[in-house]
Amino acid sequence: VPLDHALAKRRTISARHLQGQPFLAMSRSEGIDEDVRKLFQRLKVNVSVIGECPMSAASCALVESGVGITLVDHAAASFFVERKVALRRFTPSMPVNFYAYWLEKSEPRYRRSKFVSILKEEASRMEVKLDEQLAAQLDALQQQKGIESANCAL
Predict the structure, then answer these.
(1) Is the distance from CB of 80 to CB of 2 less than 8 angstroms?
(2) DSSP states of 98-139 as a string?
(3) Quick one: pLDDT at residue 148?
(4) Helix, coil or strand: residue 43
């Protein structure tokens, strides 16, 4: 969310907090948007979709400009930790799957299984690092501005 948004004062943001909010949807091409739409439908949450971004980084940049709010994975969020965006955990959490694919007819110059293993390890490290960075930022905000300390739950 933008730094000056009311939801920036929360430690976590639930789907219900997004009711009526200007929302930048994820791209329909990856299928993540469908999962988010189904979640909102199940919880009877109506967001005001103002656009669709095929790239999470573009969504975050628009959020930084104050256009609206969005949901992104930890990999995309990690690039915006030091930017003018309030990154918050979303509840309920939603798994995001990443896929590695290649043409079978091309002979790789590396072991594909090793490459995928490295990607998985790095994704785990990124998530842990992002959690640590967010916790430090939220603790600092709580001391400075009085951020809500209670976590949200559905």
Answers:
(1) no
(2) ------TTSPPSS-HHHHHHHHHHHHHHHHHHHHHHHHHHHH
(3) 52
(4) coil
24 - beta bridge partners? 51, 70
Contact 27, 53 (CB under 8 A): yes
pTM: 0.76
Instruction: Give the whole-angstrom CA distance, residue 43 versus residue 127.
Output: 26
Cα–Cα distance measured from residue 34 to residue 12, given in angstroms and rounded to the nearest whole number: 22
* C-alpha–C-alpha distance, residues 1 and 71, integer Å: 9
The predicted pLDDT at position 145 comes to 65
Average pLDDT along the chain, 154 residues, taken 10 residues at a time: 91 94 86 87 94 88 93 87 89 82 80 90 89 84 63 37
Q: What is the pLDDT of residue 105?
A: 82
Buried b (16+ CB within 10 A) or exposed e, 33-57: beebeeebeeeebebeeeeebeebe
Sign of the Cα pseudo-torsion (12, 14, 17, 20, in order): positive
Q: Which residue has the tokens 């949200």?
A: 152
The residues, any chain, with a CB within 8 Å of residue 49's CB and separated by 6 or more, are 23, 24, 25
